[in-house]
Structures are given as C-alpha cells and as structure tokens.
Design goal:
The protein has 194 residues and is an all-alpha fold. The chain folds into 2 domains: 72 residues, no CATH class; 121 residues, no CATH class. It has 9 helices and 2 strands; from the N terminus they run H-H-H-H-H-H-H-E-E-H-H. A hairpin with a 2-residue loop joins strand 1 and strand 2.
C-alpha cells in the first residue's frame, strides 16, 4: 500500500523518514517497557528471534530500505525495487514453508529454499512490472531474490534483506535502463572471445 501512496504523491520521503524515526522510538520504548498495543502486533508479524532483542526490526529496515531506494533511484525504479522486496519476500517465505523441499545453495544457514526463491522471483516480477518493463522487472526480481537468499554480512552482522533487496534490484534495473550493465557484460565477454 505504501508503494501506491508514494506513487500517488500522498506519501513523500520526508513523511517516510518521520515514520522511520517514529518506528525507532517505538522500538526503544518497546524494548524497555512492552507496550500493550505493540506487543500483540509483534507476536503476529515479527520474527521470533527479533521479538525481544530488536522489536520491530523488519518494519524499521523495510522503511529504511524504501527510503534509500527513493533517494538513490528514479521513482519508477525505486517502486519496482520495493515491490520486489514486498511481494518477493512474502511469497518466498509462504511458498518455502508450504512447498519447499530443496535447500538453496546460496544460503549458508540452510533455511532458505529454492521453491521459495522461485516463487519470490515470480511475485516480485509481477509487482515490479507495474513500474518498469517486463524484462527489467524479471532481471531485477532475479537479482533481488538471489540477494535475499544469500547471507550478506557486514562487519560480522547479517545485513537485513529489507535493505539489500530494493538496492540490488534497483541497481540492476537502473543499469539495464542506462545500458551500462550491458556495456560491462560486453567488456567482460571480450576477455573470453578470441
């Protein structure tokens, strides 16, 4: 819904930043004194391992990733990247839990499944196609969901996929639209072709 509010001009980056600050403040208060309204929401939507150590982590990093995408990319690319993380992450989790059997070799911890990643690519592609061409949406969804499946560490801390996915997907889509990704590909191929 936030994507369409931004697209319609109702939700702007400043308001999104204020939502991020409010989320961080709620996180701080929730950690010290559980809030009666927030605690039931966390039990429904927050991952078990973050519920007490970092309450609201998923939502905070989602808004941060959304804001970064809006600041780094043109609007259509930012919204495509956010749709990939929104729909792709949800679909990968739901399908992975329900139908997943094959461990994803890109995930060192072994809890991400290939079936979930493929469902995430499809769902992310559908959402991103609302804002960019189908080819760019597909390649952005593939790149974003591969990044979601991988464990990306920064200073021995796992980087949240709500930040990584829209940035990776947006970078790939921007590279395709500006054709510099194609130029890099041709440059790399020139080393293998005699």
């Amino acid at each position: 819904m936030g994507v369409f509010l931004v697209y319609a001009g109702i939700l702007d980056p400043l308001l999104l930043f204020m939502i991020l600050i409010a989320g961080i403040l709620v996180h701080i208060v929730q950690k010290m004194h559980p809030l009666p309204l927030i605690t039931p929401l966390l039990s429904l939507f927050e991952r078990e391992e973050h519920r007490f150590s970092f309450p609201g982590k998923g939502a905070i990093f989602f808004v941060a990733g959304f804001l970064l995408a809006l600041k780094l990319f043109p609007l259509n690319i930012a919204l495509a990247g956010v749709m990939i993380v929104t729909l792709g992450d949800a679909a990968s989790h739901i399908v992975g839990m329900a139908l997943g059997r094959t461990k994803n070799p890109l995930n060192r911890q072994g809890f991400k499944l290939v079936e979930g990643t493929l469902a995430g690519i499809f769902a992310g592609f559908l959402g991103a196609s609302l804002f960019v061409s189908p080819l760019h949406a597909l390649l952005g969804a593939i790149a974003g969901m591969i990044a979601e499946a991988m464990d990306i560490d920064l200073n021995r801390e796992r980087v949240d996929d709500n930040i990584i996915v829209p940035l990776v997907a947006g970078t790939v889509i921007l590279g395709l639209q500006n054709q510099w990704l194609l130029k890099v590909w041709h440059f790399l191929l020139s080393f293998w072709v005699v």
